[in-house]
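Researcher: Going back to the complex we discussed earlier. I've cleaned up the inputs and rechecked each line, so this should be the final set. Can you rerun the prediction on the complete assembly and write out the structure?
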Amino acid sequence: MSTSSVSKGCFVFKPSPKKRKKQDLSQESYFIHDCEGPESGQRRFKLCQDLWNQIKTETEVLQDELHRKILDSLLDFSRKCSSTRRHSDWASQMRASEIPTAALMLGVNVPDHDLTFNSLSDLLRQSVTPYVVSLHAKECGALKHLMKRVLEGLMDTVVAVDDEDEADQVQKSVHCSLTTLCDWYICRTKKSSNVTPGKKRPSSVMDQPEQLPPVVVVFKDMEAFNPKVLQDFIQICSRYIHRLPLMFIFGIATSPSTIQHMLPHSVSSLLCIQLFQSLSCTEHLATVIDKFILTHHFPFKLTEKVLSVLVSIFFFHDFSVRNFIKGLQLALLEHFYAQPLSVLCCGKEVALRNATQLDHSDLERIRQLPSFKRYVERQEAEEQVNLMKDDSYLKEVCHKLMKNLHKYHKNYYPVLRCLHTLTSALPRHLLGKQIRELHETCLRSNVWEQENYQSAMKLLKMRAKDELLLLLQKCAEILRSVRSKKMKNALKQLEELLCRFQQLDASTDVAPIEDECLVSPVKNLPKKTDLFQLQKTLLEMKESRRSKKLSSFEILRNETVDFIDGLVRSHLWPPESQPLHEVCYYSSVATVKHHLNATPRTSIQVALSNPDHYLENDSLKTEDGTLSSAAPDICIAYKLHLECGRLINLYDWLEAYATVVSAAEGVDPNEDAFGKVDEVNTPVSSAPCPSWSFWAL
Amino acid sequence: MTGVLEHPGYDEERLRRAAEQLPCRELQAGMLLSLMGEPQQYCYPSVFIYGHRASGKSHVINVLMKELELPHATVSCVECVSVALLFDQVLRSFFGCDEASLLPRSPSLTDFVRIYRQQSPAQQTRYIVVEKAELLRDADANLLPALLRLQELVEDNVSVILLSEIVWDTFRPNTGCFEPLLLHFPDYSKVELQQILSQDRHPSYSAELYSFYVNILLGVFYSVCRDLRELRHLAALNFSKFCEPLAEGKVKETDTHKLWKNIEPHLKKAMQTVYLREVSSLQWEQMQQTEEETGAPKGLSAHTHVELPFYSKFLLIAAYLASYNPARTDKRFFMKHHGKIKKTNFLKKNEKTTNHLLGPKPFPLDRLLAIFYSVVDGRVAPTASIFSQISSLVTLQLLAQVSHDDQLDSPKYKCAVSLEFICNISRTVNFDIMKYLYDFL
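Model: Rerun complete. Updated structure for the full complex:
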């Protein structure tokens, strides 16, 4: 490590690998707070990591599943293209040779695209061709660079796979032209057809030796490419298409018409473009939420506020699922870091085991929890004393409460889903179109006290029979998959109701008669009638309808809706009602906002007006309206400028600055009044010399 | 049918074969031959051939070179991103790889000439064919003049043939240069097109039938497209459909009216879709196989809807307003108490209705944000994500950055979306953009 350079002002010190290892080891020590034992920190760290790994693997699986369909069709397309190219029938001979091109519509959530492209090129490599190269617009400013990237990408990957003598060849080729690539490809494919199949490549490529694997060029962000470069590249490629089986994949974020904007007809006529639509990001988010938030299998929960912050970042800002998961990760980490009781935030068995191992300080913390306090207040006096004094008794209660919490979650989600299936189809989407919205409402307060809920229930009572039956069957389907006593009971009742609906079918149909008596008064209206009379008759009709006797179907329908209502009222309590919910629920909105939705402007303002906030130096602390000369110069200047109007006279401003700073001179720094000026009387004139005036921010 | 090419010094059999491959271009080929002279004679130093796309320029040259086995080097200027590549390709095809590798890493014209002169002199004229010569204008200033009189420079029997789609007048450098011989390839006429297209008939059908098919095809497409390549492509795509009733045995080959009735609407549809590349040829073939069960698949331009995050929409709207409204009207549109602005003063005659005709104007970031905050509902914190959205809109090419990337202080942008697009966007957020546009007031 030498710093003996004349020309350079900065020096790079790369950390030695040894040091880094040490840091890795002590990662979990960050979790240990001042007053607790290290085991608890370690345990929380482990839980946190387990949960994060779970999220990571499951999102990967999810991503693969979601993209499976589109990738499959894409692979199909590429296979078809490479096979039709070899046909020698009349039609394909006659046709102008087009370069097969897949336009992949990915949506505007650009941060997610990388994952998609990675899995895509992996799949292509596995099943279609070893020759895949991905291009970023940033690296391809000019045609030269693009060519270079293509050649490097293609030849390097193979060099890495195979023997090393190829490397010399690459270096020898001075000019990066497609001719070089062509020669390389031909020699490559010849060589590989001599090699015994399956030795170096996946066997699928080698199945038909006469069928050459295509060379795939992926343009990851089509929009960002320079149109001229792209056009030239396509024109060049079309000259070689007979010798080199090329194929393009365009990643398009906005709309397919960008192709037409970027490529003139003379160029786009060289391509055979096929569109592929990928899943919309909102659907992707819905599946992610379904997997991690709307399930009792995942012990970590978000409160309504945190969830809505994350969701609103998604919808208002970036549409990026990856960022949403990042947010979830942050919340997870923060929860386990800041909440010592999060040892209990895990699967039921482990949580119960951990509950028995709580020490005194942990139990004290439980006593401090607001939800627990509320629980204590509801108990009788003797019980209260026991809970507050007796540690072992508290442990038992904790055990019970944790069990209850798990039960609550187990029942909450199925009922939520049922309610969603019933209400999502209602007009105006009173309780939200997405289950996510309904979940948020339920977390916020008692859902049944809301106006929307009540009107939704009213609307449910007006649904036609077959619709209602269909929805109820769906609900039964949901409840069937749950293994909990209460839900099984609910299912039994629901099935009973369904049975009775079916029996109604068999009995006489009353509906037509009803219709008649509804319609008849309208018919009875006299031909000519004034407005007043019409109103009167209509009112009467309404009255008569209201007083009409309910049919048996209607009675049953009301009963069903009441049953659903009962389910909701007994299971969809907001989590705040549950004692010990703080263990599982992460609630610090401010932290999440602070980390995910940074506000550069406000932080600069804070730094300028309260320098102590970031410098963490108590001596800089000031009361309102005072100025400390100990503060950094720029802070003083900033504060002085705030006191001016729209225009600042530069001379006065600097004078004022000098006054503040020189006030400290000759004064003992240890004195209390050091550098404090009570009221800054800055003589700001409103008639400044114009050339030195500044606009106040 | 085809005229005969005649020239002393070349094998007659070869000339005949070449002439067969060049229908309707006998005149031009004959002219070229007489320019080239006998193989060992010196040719005119440079020939400039121009004509529209697919008028047979490269084809004629290639056929002559191949059939008469003349030493030649064909280079395309699109491909030659640097002069080095051009030199390399020329030397490689004349003298082989070894000589080409003599070129230094970034060769100058002198290097090229030096190495060329080291080689053995030509026994017969060597030809350098430069395709897409219009790109030479963007290359080094000395390259085009030097190529035009390369014969003098290398003191050898070499001739340069330039092919281009545009006329010579646009090439002439300021400093003047050697004038090449100009040779124009006119467009094929309808009769000529039919003659050429009829040549590539399907082996299993008679020549008459195919020529009849070509006739129908030209009847539909001739008014919009005279590009031979494109027409050939279309002919190949639609021929199977044309033959369908024949294959099914419903119609005889002689029943031309029925065949015409069958194919005509089909071709019309093709004109709207596959010709414009709205639908790829692969999709078109699939459509033919599956037949009319589903409506035509949506073309590329049918998908114009772009789903954007909520604030991005408002940012885009704000950018559109900033681009198309004069800055002095912002006060009127976005301040609650803007006071009375005199109508006559506010609506300047010449400024009115011209903004959309003039296109978007650049605006600074501050103005964009100011409009954004007054347009969007509720309070929005100026977070980093808002700023990053602006740059992601730039990468999506919905906004265009006008100022240089280096300018960090107050970057300037332009809005790059159409009125229709922004109307769709503002409809999704219930924002009546027309009320805020100065042009439509």
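Model: Worth noting: Chain B has a mean pLDDT of 84.
Researcher: Good, that matches what I expected from the previous run.
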